[in-house]
Amino acid sequence: TNVEAAKRAAAQQAVADHFDPSASFVGIGSGTTIVYVVEAIKERSTNPSVLFVPTGYQSRQLVINAGLTPISFDSIPDRVMLDVAFDGADEVDTELNCIKGGGACLFQEKLVAERAKKFVCVADYRKRQDRLLTNWPTIPIEVAPLSQHKVEASLRLLGSTNPKLRTTLLEKSGPLKTDQHFFIIDAPFPALLTSADVAAGKGKGDGSDGTWEVNNISKAIKGLTGVLEVGIFSGMNGNDAQALRAKDGALSA
Ligand code: DER
Predict the structure, then answer these.
(1) How would DSSP label each residue in 157-198?
(2) Are residues 230 and 163 in contact, defined by beta-carbon separation less than 8 angstroms?
(3) Is the full-model pTM beyond 0.90?
(4) Which of 28, 38, 91, 105 to mutate for ligand 1's pocket (most ligand atoms within 8 Å of CB)?
(5) Annotated catalytic sites, by residue?
(6) What is the pLDDT of residues 52-101, one digit of tens each?
């Protein structure tokens, strides 16, 4: 099946199911799937004063190029929650936990996702796995440049075999910088256990036996001084995180 067709199918289903044309504030994520989400929203939006909260420069340009009105996250009025936020993911497990950060936008993505009444993750069939880090091998972590080596050492102590600074020789010599001017470290770990795995005795999930549960590894990494954000999205504040999967164009939630 054509991956692009699957992305478009997932995006159109997600917007049909979760975009209310009368919405006032809508979060827009980063990556390539989100492009189809914005296209679908453009077809359905009827509220001329709806404002779109981007999750980085790419997301903001996408909103502007679609003729939609962006608003910066720090301009959202106090106590206002976004009606809905749409974003992609690099991997999604059976409990709707996500690995995010393939596009190095995870910090603003998490800010926006947590500010939304509903977080809609739009992901084609390639992203859906039983456990995180099955197909996508690493946890993206945004760190203050000065803390890079220290965080890498701490990640090794947590069991990451070979944490690597993200560089891209194609566009720039040297490390990639995020929209916050921070670095990204990609840390490989064994597949992350779900809470059901731990309940079933598949491992302790606290690192003591070499296994990690999704929330435990996320908290352990987030606790390292120098870490700004971790590319693990779980629970989403109890929001109704919907992971949509397009399989051969058909959809299953
Ligand atoms: O960086 C992210 O988390 C993005 O949402 C991204 O990785 C998903 O990108 P894709 O839609 O191009 O696969």
Answers:
(1) HTT-S--EE-B-TTT-SSB---TTS-EEEEEE-SPBBPHHHH
(2) no
(3) yes
(4) 105
(5) 109
(6) 999 999 999 999 999 999 999 999 999 899 999 999 999 999 999 999 99
